[in-house]
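Q: Sequence in, structure out?
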Amino acid sequence: MINIENNRSGCPVSTSLEIIGDSWTLLIIRDLFLERNTFKNFINSPEKISSNVLTDRLKKLIKNDIISYFIDPRDKKIKKYYLTDAGIALFPMIYNLSMWSKIHLKMRFNGVATEWYEENQNKNSDDVIADSINGYKLFRSELLSQAQNHKMAI
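A: Exactly. Output:
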């Protein structure tokens, strides 16, 4: 459980927004669900987050136990970020924001979003959410296993 100190109010929505409410933070969480997990991956996202803002948001997410990281055993300069269980639990919100956008925003969506909408158009929301969460957990497990196996091989 995330320990909260000095929040503005006892309102759960307000407190949650203090942690994940800015657009950059949600985009980092989105990117992690898309299996982008390095500083370079985040910098190269279409939204073009600046390096100082990215560094700040990563530190905030780590401090609040939404994400964690390990040092890439093959390149000590690279940190591999991943969602904690608390971070994974945010997927239903990401899903609902995405679906709200599809329904209410008149715009052209990028290729990743369009493909995702097409892949999931005939599925119910609970199945999409469960499949996405399970898929990410598998990715995270493999990522952490590869890091551990590389450590043991050294």
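The longest helix spans residues 125-153.
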